[in-house]
Amino acid sequence: MSIAYIDITVSLDGFAAGSDVSHKDPLGVGGEALHAWIGGGEPADAAATQDMFRYAGAVVLGRTMFDLGEPLWGETGAFGLPCFVVTHRPRETLVRDLTSFTFVPTLAEALASARAVAGDNKPIGVAGGPSIARQCFAAGLVQELSLHVAPVVLGGGIAPFPEGAPLALTPLAGPTQGVATHWRFAINR
């Protein structure tokens, strides 16, 4: 069976979004600074951007991330892969030039659907947001973590890691340093 991995950026104080997430501030107040490294001119940042979902066969994300990101992703849909959106508000599949978004009611169903599309040879990328990442970690549904640490302190916001559930990690790659610091870890069970 294919592995699932989370690819997420956090601040130095561990938040994947600032407080008060809204259409005006899709990453919360101050949260845009988290992604200043994406597509940047530093070689490590460019490589990390390129590798985010390059090897994935499908992507899982939450409804809030979809609702706030979709207007910004343009006609391609940004991911270039089949995406499964976890939501209690169903709707018809949305097809963009390079990306399809299928809406499913549970995280387990999203991961199963993504695995069915990706097959056994490609991993499943979990894009987030922080709530979906927290659920995946807490339920033991992911095997790897690609972590990008941005040089910003948000002082509050939404954390992707579950409270009271320590994660034992083994470094697989990194750190590499650009504007952000990039790591890849295996999650030990």
Structural topology:
Layout: E1 4-10, H1 43-51, E2 58-62, H2 63-69, E3 82-86, E4 94-95, E5 100-104, H3 107-118, E6 124-128, H4 130-139, E7 144-149, E8 168-177, E9 181-188
Parallel strand pairs: 1-6, 1-7, 2-3, 2-6, 3-5
Antiparallel strand pairs: 4-5, 7-9, 8-9
Describe this structure in words.
Strand 2 (58-62), helix 2 (63-69) and strand 3 form a beta-alpha-beta unit. The chain is built from four helices and nine strands. With 189 residues, the protein is of the alpha/beta class. The protein has a nine-stranded mixed sheet, sandwiched between helices. It has helices at residues 43-51, 63-69, 107-118, 130-139, and strands at residues 4-10, 58-62, 82-86, 94-95, 100-104, 124-128, 144-149, 168-177, 181-188. The chain has a single domain, classed as Dihydrofolate Reductase, subunit A (3-Layer(aba) Sandwich).
